[in-house]
Amino acid sequence: MNKGWIIFIVLVAIVAVIVYAYTGFALKPTAKTTTSVLTTVGASTIGSTSVTTTIPGILVNCSAVYIQGVNPFSKTNATCQWGGGKLGIWVDSGKAFNTTVSIIGTDGKTYTNGTFSYNALTFFANVSLPKQNYTVSLSAGPEGINGSSPFIKLNTTTTAPAIVYSYIYNANFSNGQYTGWNISGSGFGTKPFNLTRANSANVLCYYGSPWKNYPGTFFASTYTCGTSVSPGNLTSEELRVDPKTPFLNFRMISPADNLVYVEVFQVGGNASVVGHFNTYNISNGANVSSTFSNVSLPLTTLSNKIVRIKIVAATVQPVRYVAIGAFTLGNLPNTDKGVITQVNITR
């Protein structure tokens, strides 16, 4: 071996020793961060966690995916990993008139795809997915006037995930359905009352004079276009009472009857506020049986508690129907004089 090769080998050995001293020949890994849940729930919360960010190099499990569409005509994606098996898909289209969800695997196959129209939390499907990574997408269409942003939630059961709204879901029944409300009994029928249709010349479905003083088209009622009534209850989705807006305001027609009232009760507790109203006491010359009044309930004793609104119409006496809707939460009461007859508060 000539002298030049010996010098070259020695130089390579020296460089190798220096590199080893500083790095041990270890390769620095490339960190990868994937944000799978992009934002807080906004108008609603699921459980106690609303934001999930994966740690470097690891994807969130698909069973924990939650996406909320923030803007109309927007598409939001989340990437997740799944070990194989069945997933439940839950969708709430919120105030979007239509919402599309899809799940696409890294194999390029679309495993589920569906479009939903203006609805409360709805179970879409159980879908069996093989082991791989997936892209879950939520596309929001044009906005309506009621509700919050649409969202999709994945879990491993057919049991609905716990939803707690910070507003009253489907507060004025503006989609013409009782979505977001539980119906008990036959009194309120299968869908809200259509004021426009009832007041039309070819229907005339009201008692005394046309319906008045209601800021919308649909409301809940036990009126049957006749004198007979049937008992029934309506119960809202869960919501959390914000101490900044501690008054439940709404429009109502109600007789003085101990069996007709509105109750706001604590979920999993004993606290409640019950209000009895008599809108027939108004002496303004209007036909009181078909004119809505502004009524309110104070919810200060329920601040920060999870509650439901329950409309009770247990009477069967003729013409003692109830009509109600246009629920809002406010920082001040909005009540017509002489309407509230009794408020019972249980702490």
Question: How does this model look, in words?
Answer:
The strands form 5 sheets. Strands 12, 15, 16, 18, 19, 21 and 23 form a 7-stranded antiparallel sheet that branches. Strands 2-4-9-6-7 form a 5-stranded mixed sheet, with no helix packed on it. It is mainly β. Helix content is 7%, strand content 37%. It has 2 helices and 23 strands.
Q: Using only CA atoms, what is the Rg?
A: 29 Å
Computed structural class = mainly beta
Major sheet characteristics: 7 strands, antiparallel
User: Per CATH, what is the topology of the largest domain?
Assistant: Jelly Rolls
CATH hierarchy class name of the largest domain: Mainly Beta
**Into how many domains do the coordinates divide?**
2
Element-by-element helix/strand order: HEEEEEEEEEEEEEHEEEEEEEEEE
The total count of helices amounts to: 2
Q: Please give the number of β-strands.
A: 23
